[in-house]
Design brief:
The protein has a three-stranded antiparallel sheet with strand order 1-2-3. It has helices at residues 6-15, 22-28, 55-58, 61-92, 94-110, and strands spanning 31-35, 38-42, 48-53. The protein is 50% helix and 11% strand. The chain has one domain. With 140 residues, the protein is mainly α. A hairpin with a 2-residue loop joins β1 and β2.
Amino acid sequence: MDERSIDELIEIAEGMPRTNGLAAGLDAVRGTARGEGVSLAVDLQGMLVGLELDDRALALGPAGLAAEISRLSNEAGTDSLRQGMLAIQAGCGAEVAAVVGDYLISIEGEAGQPAPEPPSRPVTWDDEDVHWGSTKKETW
């Protein structure tokens, strides 16, 4: 739990740069994943916003298709979260992004699941495994 007072948090918020378009940028984040004839996209909340199936996917049968969609949804959710963290870092700074990341790790651990290991280094704009889709750095 954060030990800072409300006044301290307000002071931090007032010192943050104005982030025109950050909310729109976060709303536009889409994580994607492909595999076994399935291609899908999720938004930053993990909601499925795009799904394409081909004959290979249909050949998996109901249980196989459900498992593949579930697996890819998790993968795409991780992708969208990574992109969202980059948007927060770009719009609010590395310190705010670090606090948000720490919070996300803490609530993951509270859910009875082991907390993921933190990345060995901060995610950057130049990471090759980050897929931007329609979101562009300049809009944040």
